[in-house]
Amino acid sequence: MPSQQFTQSDPASQWSRLNDELDRWQAAGLTASFWWRDDDAVSDGPRLAKLVELSERFHIPLGLAVIPATLHGSLQQPVNSSSRVFVLQHGYAHIDHSPADETGAWELGLHRGLKTLMDELQQGRATLLQTFGDRFTPVVVPPWNRIADELPPHLAQAGYGGLSAFGENALRHSKAGFKVTNCHCDPVSWKRGGVFSGTASTLDQLLDRLARARANPEESTAPTGYLTHHAVMDDASWDFTETLFDTLNRHQAARFLAADQVFSP
Ligand SMILES: [Zn+2]
To answer: C or N: which end of the chain has fewer Cβ atoms within 10 Å?
Structure first.
């Protein structure tokens, strides 16, 4: 089909929107940095292997958010033998402890008291350190991307190096020695039961964040985060992920941060 007949719904014209935005970064003398997080890892399997294969094929570091309480020993080998996977702590057990009148699921709220919460997190941290050694980065990824406002200072005090949730509040809890690096783009439509959100709407999330960061020097240095969920993603979400990685790798104004840069102070 000739390019002039493309409509907004054509995948090719959608992907050209991303290239156009990256061209703007390049024209401004800027580099857009990215990072990749995948949530809910507990064990090895074909989907986990696919993640690691993508990380290797595209040379992209993968921040794997692992649930400590349900961790299966099979996850140790693929993580520790990969060259680019680093482990983050996905809460403790990924259990919703919010009261019935609370809207939405919440593990890292203060409903059970700070001590219980911190004890669980420290226990989970010990498990991940024991299993993954220096592949584990002591950073908390709150289940459902939700965390009590009071908690980050306690995490910092307990020796965590940062946290990662979702959205624009990347700098809200950041302070010396505690880095908040969020994700901004998720290809999965949770409202529609975990299917792919579509190329246009997923790219909208990415382009919104990129345009905002380009206009704001403070935000432009924080990486744009891409979030996957290997356990639920359909073929279309995986295909989008591959095209995204390929597109970003080909553009001179885009780069993925090295694993040790994502949460470096
Ligand atoms: Zn999760």
So the answer is: N
Question: Could you tell me what percentage of the chain is helix, strand and coil, using 3-state DSSP and rounding each to the nearest 5?
Answer: 45, 20, 40
Assess if residue 17 is contained within a domain. Answer: no
Grade residue 171 by pLDDT with cuts at 50, 70 and 90. low
Gap from CA of 91 to ligand 1 centroid (Å): 8
Task: Tell me if 25 is assigned to some domain.
Answer: no
Give residues with Cβ within 8 angstroms of 119, minimum separation 6: none
Residue at 3 is within a domain: no
What pTM, to 2 d.p., does this model score? 0.94
Quick: pLDDT tens for 197-227.
Answer: 999 999 999 999 999 999 987 777 789 999 9
Q: Give 3-35 pLDDT, tens digit per residue.
A: 444 445 677 889 999 999 999 999 999 999 999
User: How many angstroms does the Cα of residue 41 sit away from the middle of ligand 1?
Assistant: 8
Q: Alpha-carbon torsion 36, 40, 43, 46, what sign?
A: negative
* Domain at 234, CATH number: 3.20.20.370
39 CA from centroid of ligand 1 (Å): 5
The Å distance, Cα 140 to ligand 1 centre, comes to 11
Residues 64/41, Cβ–Cβ less than 8 Å: yes
13, part of any domain? no
Structural domain for 50, as ranges: 32-259
pLDDT over threshold 90, residue 70: yes
